[in-house]
Amino acid sequence: MELEVKAYPKLFVRPVVIITTVSERGIANAAPFSFNSPVSFEPPLYGFSCDPMHDTLKNIRENSEFVVNVAGKDLGEQMHVLETDYPYEDNEIVHAGLTEEKAKVVTPPRIKEAAGWLECKLEKEIEAGNHIWITGKIVAVGVNDEFWKEEGVIDVAKLLCHVGGEFFAVDMKEAKYKRVK
Ligand SMILES: Cc1cc2nc3c(=O)[nH]c(=O)nc-3n(C[C@H](O)[C@H](O)[C@H](O)COP(=O)(O)O)c2cc1C
User: Is the CB–ligand 1 distance for residue 34 below 6 Å?
Assistant: First the structure.
């Protein structure tokens, strides 16, 4: 069966992240993203694709910092709140009933309930179609202890993945993986 070309993202199961930023006045903003990926080991780079109208981009352009909070399945219910287009400087973390925690290196807060987080400093932005691809250099990384399956292996069954629109891959319990050294 052929699909409309613009439906292509349905073929990719993508991890959901909540990106936190701050305005120039230091007010936090949070928004979910799923067009995102690791980019490089050395230097450690991460990238995501952002609509140019998003407050997330405005804030990153203000102060060049962001935190990538990897979402667990338990945050699925909060997605509709986090993706709501609240007025600028209206803090979605508060609306979603989540908890801000101080990040180690950057100013934007991280989300305590997240499975893990990457603290990033803006490396570059590239125009990509009707989105902007933001690349950040990772300056600190952490994993919430509840999300380890065994030493060094994340419990992927607990992570939230996005297929498209309101569709999430909610049951990856059967996902099989091997530890490769
Ligand atoms: C699961 C999920 C994934 C999303 N992925 C993206 C994405 O990759 N890029 C994007 O620009 N918007 C994405 N959105 C939409 C933004 O999160 C939404 O428009 C949000 O209001 C932007 O917030 P901001 O203006 O505070 O930055 C996604 C929404 C959801 C619920």
Answer: yes
Fold type of domain 14-169:
Pnp Oxidase; Chain A (2.30.110)
pLDDT of the residue at 170: 65
Question: Which regions of 129-159 does DSSP assign to beta strands (E)?
Answer: 131-143, 148-150, 153-154
Q: Is the pTM here over 0.85, yes or no? A: yes
Average pLDDT by stretches of 10, the chain with 181 residues: 91 94 97 97 98 98 98 90 94 97 98 98 98 98 96 91 80 48 40
- Measured in Å, residue 110 CA sits from the centre of ligand 1 at 17
The reply to whether ligand 1 has any atom less than 6 angstroms from the CB of 73 is no
Quote the CA–CA distance of 172 and 90 in Å, as a whole number.
Answer: 34
Domain boundaries, the chain: 14-169
ω into residue 44 within 30 of 0, thus cis?
no
How far apart are the C-alpha atoms of 31 and 87, rounded to whole Å?
A: 13
